[in-house]
Amino acid sequence: MYFLSWVKEPAAPVLSRRGGWRIKGDVWLAGAWERRLVSSLVRKYFNLDPGFENDLVVFHRVPSWSGEVDYAFGFHAHALRLGVAYYSVKEGWSLSPTGALASLLESQGAQACDVGFAGHLKGKRVELPEECAASSNMVLLRMGGYVGVARRTGGGGRFKVKDAAPRGFRKLAQGGAEDVVRANQQVLRESVREAKGFIMKAYRSIQGSGKAAVSFSGGADSTATLSLAAEALGPGKVVAVYSDTGLEFPESLRYAEQVASRLGVELVVLEPSARVVDLVGEKGLMSVDDRWCTRILKLEPLRKFYSNSGLKLYFDGARDYESFGRAKTPRLGYNPLIPGVTRALPIKKWPRLLVQAYLYSVKTPLNPLYDQGFTRIGCVACPAMHLYELHLSFSKHRGIHEELAKAAGVSMGDYLRMRWSTREPG
Asked: Whole-angstrom Cα distance, residue 236 to residue 366?
């Protein structure tokens, strides 16, 4: 279990084993697209640019609270919990701000309506004058020494105060990647030592000699696992195995080649035995409930590779914070579709922020797709994508998605509204 807090000079998030905000969902440093997103949402609701594009902003995954909401995350910056952003099929991106964000925005010059009451009105309904209520369905309120955010609840000037905080919150001096590494030195040192010890023990007891493999997708988790394995065993004893399903982002394969070269490890790229479009025409679109794509395009080439290579062990970057299913996966175990090879998970307990801090500490850049808004580095049409990621992918690789929709016999409108879990129209 990890907790999140901040150092303030300069501002940087800190992970620890005790004290601070308890991390329940995954937590990570927002990429460039994600920072622009929260800034644009603030501008949309409050007509003020908060300038988060260049700040350290921490996101944490929160559960979706209705069938309409496909994806939701909370965000923190400047040692403040600022709100929740969420994506729905009907409305796109929306924002639920906290009182802390209201206080920060007022300090930056955002207009707040004075309700003439010096007290904390969270949860109360208020009637606002026309000049305050006409501009938006969400407004900032000044309540003596407090400032809060209120949402319209009916016609006219009726609003409900959603949250409030003391006035005067301001931005802190901004930290960078080096400050994140410095602030997390202790947890990094302990976590890296434990992971490398686990890697060496698994190698000695299972592989014994020769090379061990790392399942490498080009995502942050597999990149960190590959780097840790190269540190623990030496680059000459590590082979990075990249499974090209035929739907990979071009950026990912280029990134994988660059990282393997930088680390000095062997890179093996496996190719699929069938075309994705042909399989979609035969089986329909892949989904979380039916990941035939993983079985046929990824695991089958991996099974053949391992059966021919003689390797007995591979390391994988799967983490508990990714999903409930992965949290149940044993740290040492087997994938039944890759028989005879042990699967080992060195960073199983790490939150993504720790993965990022480790990669910063060893000067390894992240896959550029993270700065383009993707939280998961998989295929162009991965069934595990959130709906907004599918829409981002469509904007980058429209032709591939049109081929898949045509092969499946569905319209592009239905394709882009499909629920990520079942691929049925939402």
From this structure: 23
Reported as a single tens digit per residue, the pLDDT across 19-38 is 888 888 899 999 999 999 99
Burial of 154 per CB tally in 10 Å (0-12, 13-18, 19+) = exposed
* Segments in 203-334 forming alpha helices (H): 220-233, 250-263, 276-283, 292-293, 300-309, 324-327
Q: Is the peptide bond before 10 cis (omega within 30 degrees of 0)?
A: yes
H helices present in 8-135, as ranges: 32-46, 99-107, 130-133
Q: Determine phi and psi for 250, rounding to 5 degrees.
A: -55, -35
What's the CA gap between 39 and 101, in Å, rounded? 12
Q: What is the pLDDT of residues 154-212, one digit of tens each?
A: 777 888 899 999 999 999 998 999 999 999 999 999 999 999 999 999 999 999 999 99
Percentage helix, strand, coil for the chain under 3-state DSSP, each rounded to 5: 40, 25, 35
- The domain limits of the chain are 3-166, 184-417
d(CA 184, CA 355): 11
Quote the distance between the C-alpha of residue 420 and its chain's center. 16
Tokens 């797709």 — which residue?
369
How far apart are alpha carbons 48 and 323 in whole angstroms? 36
Q: Which CATH class is domain 184-417?
A: alpha beta
Using pLDDT thresholds of 50, 70 and 90, give the confidence band for residue 423.
Answer: low
Rg (C-alpha) for the chain, rounded Å, is 24
Q: Tell me the average pLDDT across 92-109.
A: 95
Token code pair at residue 207: 């592989």
> Residue type at 80?
L
CB 232 within 8 A of CB 265: no
DSSP secondary structure code for residue 313 in this structure: E
